[in-house]
């Protein structure tokens, strides 16, 4: 890599890296250049702006080059930084789990709306917990709640446990590795899940940051993208406590089909919250009263 040589200024590094990232079809190349250089130097964006004429410290050059090379290869920025913000939390990330995304915050909003009492002593289950982002976000807003996160990948469960400890929530959470609902016998006020919902054949066509670097186990929803929802529909009636609700993340255009699976399993669709992009993202379900109709928005 001939650009970004020792002795060059912060501004020169940012300019050269931005051009290289733009050529690699990276969105927001200037922003990402600042993130990479700030990470390498241990500096904030404000410090980079203030010190734009200062030379990049020699010890930061190699770190920056390595990060830039990774990003040019479409390694996700969160993997390079090792962190991702979600809700009000700072979470460690790794290739063992999906990177938390803003779209999934709609599930947190739906869950908090379903249980508006801040002091409610909720029992929560998060199926396919990944980084623990959904469960930990709800726990951070409901201080008397306790939650269990379950993931089929032991490395993901360990990552979520570390995130709970780092955010002061280890005392109100537990994380287990197992095959979703079959590993548990209990009733929960709230069940959260961001299941795999991408059609198998569509995964190679996803953006390279996802297709190459995020775990297939957390993406692949089977031939029609609905395999996990079928399993969830069968498991949820036995997992929900009286008055309990489930909040499931949906892929674009999946609401009607998933609601049909839920109804057939004895669940009532209550509402569906859209994400910031307008996609119907967070489906809220409850047990259907015997002889009663489903209630949907």
UniProtKB/TrEMBL annotation:
Record flagged with keyword S-adenosyl-L-methionine: yes
Residues the entry annotates as binding S-adenosyl-L-methionine: 128-132, 151, 180, 194
Release factor glutamine methyltransferase N-terminal domain ranges (all copies): 16-82
Methyltransferase small domain span: 122-201
Enzyme class (EC, first level): transferase
Alphabetical UniProt keywords: Methyltransferase, S-adenosyl-L-methionine, Transferase
Reaction(s) the record says it catalyses: L-glutaminyl-[peptide chain release factor] + S-adenosyl-L-methionine = N(5)-methyl-L-glutaminyl-[peptide chain release factor] + S-adenosyl-L-homocysteine + H(+)
Stretch forming the signal peptide: none
The keyword Transferase is assigned to this record: yes
Superkingdom of origin: Bacteria
EC number: 2.1.1.297
BP term (GO), one: methylation
Gene Ontology molecular function, alphabetical: peptide chain release factor N(5)-glutamine methyltransferase activity
UniProt binding sites for substrate: 194-197
Known function: Methylates the class 1 translation termination release factors RF1/PrfA and RF2/PrfB on the glutamine residue of the universally conserved GGQ motif.
Family: Belongs to the protein N5-glutamine methyltransferase family. PrmC subfamily.
Protein name: Release factor glutamine methyltransferase
Source organism (scientific name): Falsiroseomonas tokyonensis
């Amino acid at each position: 890599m001939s650009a970004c040589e020792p002795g060059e200024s912060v501004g020169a590094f940012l300019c050269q890296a931005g051009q290289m990232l733009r050529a690699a079809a990276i969105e927001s190349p200037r922003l990402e250049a600042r993130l990479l250089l700030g990470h390498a130097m241990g500096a904030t964006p404000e410090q980079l702006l203030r010190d734009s004429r200062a030379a990049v410290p020699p010890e930061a050059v190699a770190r920056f080059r390595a990060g830039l090379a990774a990003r040019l290869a479409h390694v996700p920025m969160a993997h390079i930084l090792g962190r991702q913000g979600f809700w009000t939390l700072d979470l460690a990330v790794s290739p063992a789990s999906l990177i938390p995304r803003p779209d999934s915050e709609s599930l947190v909003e739906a869950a908090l709306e379903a249980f508006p009492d801040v002091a409610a002593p909720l029992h929560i289950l998060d199926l396919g917990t990944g980084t623990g982002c959904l469960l930990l976000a709800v726990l951070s807003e409901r201080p008397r709640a306790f939650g269990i996160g379950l993931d089929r990948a032991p490395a993901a469960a360990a990552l979520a446990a570390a995130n709970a400890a780092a955010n002061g929530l280890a005392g109100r959470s537990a994380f287990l590795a197992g095959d979703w609902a079959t590993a548990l016998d209990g009733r929960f006020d709230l069940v959260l899940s961001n299941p795999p919902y991408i059609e198998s054949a569509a995964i190679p066509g996803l953006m390279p940051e996802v297709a190459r670097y995020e775990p297939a186990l957390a993406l692949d929803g089977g031939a029609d993208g609905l395999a996990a929802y079928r399993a969830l529909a069968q498991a949820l009636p036995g997992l929900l406590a009286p008055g309990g609700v489930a909040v499931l993340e949906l892929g674009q255009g999946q609401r009607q089909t998933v609601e049909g699976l839920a109804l057939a399993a004895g669940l009532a669709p209550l509402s569906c919250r859209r994400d910031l992009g307008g996609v119907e993202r967070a489906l809220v379900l409850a047990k259907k009263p015997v002889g009663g109709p489903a209630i949907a928005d």
